[in-house]
């Protein structure tokens, strides 16, 4: 039976979610107001904490916030050198001006790099490339940005490096890098190519440039505006990405690495911190993250997430096939609407308990959880951190991605990906 605090947490979450969908109020404002309402209702009252604020703060992932802030500074400063425009234009030359092929290949690249670095980091690198192409050839940025979100979630599922949810699952389940790649890599590769192809066909009319592409001009033209800034920014960006890949060996968290890189770049470029944090950090998206962490934390703190997860598996017993399918699709649906990290974290001990009580092997259940939670996070714009980062970067450039516009395109794409996972799970894992 859910407590009164749990019911309050559900009601506030649904109210805030309704306002986000309606877009009647800026999402950052409504999530902060919703978080404050939780305090007024006493949802975070707990004898184990000094006060409600301390309890709520324990659910804020400062590592994610530090990663986003640090990468925003690094990428935005580096982009002033013109390197992202250079990459975009040379890609067009290499494909002989075929914008559909450009779109397809860049989406594959997005998925590939998110398999090895944080998908938050990956979208910060790729988004300026997409915007440079769209700006020069008067293309709608929506196909690029919305598909980027989907494939960054998909690509991060292939390894225990790109998606925080997958990192947690692999760590708690005791899966090695090779084991994750060998079990999830093949199906993720298939899904990546298929979804990129579907997106290319779906947006084919919007991928016709309104400005004529002159390949001779692009071959001869350089878009590098500041070589000194390119060397400094590029070196720091590469160093940060490499450090993120080997973070376990370094014993450092993503946020520490990104913020350290940002501070080193400010030191090298002599840009004042006030200027950098004012121009290059989208603070509305940072506060939106803070409010969202508090809102979803309330669902976790009051037992709502645990109750949902337990309800999913309570009637399946030792039927591994049925349980795996239920975990796959329920994880996808829940992860589209609430943060996939608390849901996956709650499911992990439940899966372990099932293995202990029934004696069944739990590996297939963990693979189902990983695929469902990671890919499911692409279903709405608030399903995963990287989604919100792309939305924030778009807003920073005067582009608005509405909740419903994204949902109508992405949710069915997500379902296609998860359905393929279901087929793969049934025939090759179970």
One letter per element, helices H and strands E, the order comes to: HHHHHHHHHHHHHHHHHHHHHH
Query: Could you list the spans in which at least 5 consecutive residues all have pLDDT below 50?
Result: none
For the sheet with most strands, the description reads: none
Shape: globular
Helix content percent band: over 70%
Overall pLDDT score: 89
List the domain count as a whole number: 1
Q: How large is the radius of gyration?
A: 22 Å
Task: Write structural notes for this entry.
The protein has 430 residues and is mostly helical. The protein has one domain (4-58, 83-223, 282-429). The chain is built from 22 helices and no strands. Helix 1 (4-22) runs antiparallel to helix 2 (27-40) and helix 4 (62-79) packs antiparallel against helix 12. The longest helix has 27 residues, at 403-429. It is globular, with a radius of gyration of 22 Å. The protein starts with a helix and ends with a helix.
């Amino acid at each position: 039976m859910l407590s009164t605090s749990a019911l309050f947490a559900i009601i506030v979450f649904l109210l805030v979610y309704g306002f986000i969908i309606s877009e009647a109020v800026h999402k950052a404002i409504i999530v902060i107001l919703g978080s404050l309402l939780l305090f007024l209702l006493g949802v975070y009252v707990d004898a184990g904490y000094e006060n409600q604020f301390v309890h709520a703060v324990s659910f804020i992932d400062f590592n994610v916030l530090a990663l986003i802030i640090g990468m925003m500074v690094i990428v935005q400063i580096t982009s002033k050198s013109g390197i992202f425009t250079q990459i975009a234009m040379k890609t067009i030359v290499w494909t002989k001006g075929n914008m559909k092929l450009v779109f397809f290949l860049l989406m594959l690249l997005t998925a590939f790099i998110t398999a090895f670095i944080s998908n938050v980091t990956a979208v910060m690198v790729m988004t300026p490339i997409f915007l440079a192409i769209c700006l020069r050839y008067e293309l709608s940025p929506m196909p690029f940005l919305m598909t980027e979100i989907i494939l960054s979630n998909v690509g991060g599922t292939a390894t225990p490096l790109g998606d925080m949810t997958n990192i947690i699952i692999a760590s708690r389940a005791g899966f090695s890098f090779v084991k994750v790649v060998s079990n999830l890599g093949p199906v993720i590769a298939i899904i990546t190519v298929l979804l990129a192809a579907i997106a290319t066909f779906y947006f084919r009319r919007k991928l016709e440039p309104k400005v004529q592409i002159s390949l001779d001009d692009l071959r001869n033209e350089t878009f590098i505006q500041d070589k000194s800034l390119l060397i400094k920014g590029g070196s720091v960006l590469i160093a940060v990405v490499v450090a993120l890949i080997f973070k376990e060996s370094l014993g450092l968290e993503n946020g520490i690495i990104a913020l350290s890189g940002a501070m080193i770049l400010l030191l090298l470029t002599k840009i004042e911190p006030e200027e950098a944090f004012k121009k290059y950090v989208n603070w509305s998206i940072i506060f939106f993250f803070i409010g969202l962490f508090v809102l979803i934390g309330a669902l976790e703190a009051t037992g709502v997430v645990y109750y949902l997860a337990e309800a999913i598996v309570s009637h399946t017993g030792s039927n591994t096939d049925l349980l795996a399918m239920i975990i796959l699709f329920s994880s996808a649906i829940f992860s589209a609407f609430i943060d996939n990290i608390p849901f996956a974290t709650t499911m992990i001990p439940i899966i372990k308990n099932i293995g202990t009580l029934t004696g069944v092997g739990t590996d297939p259940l963990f693979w189902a959880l990983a695929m469902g939670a990671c890919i499911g996070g692409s279903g709405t714009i608030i399903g995963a951190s990287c989604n919100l980062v792309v939305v924030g970067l778009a807003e920073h450039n005067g582009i608005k991605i509405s909740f419903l516009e994204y949902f109508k395109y992405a949710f069915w794409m997500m379902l296609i990906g998860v359905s393929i996972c279901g087929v793969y799970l049934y025939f090759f894992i179970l």
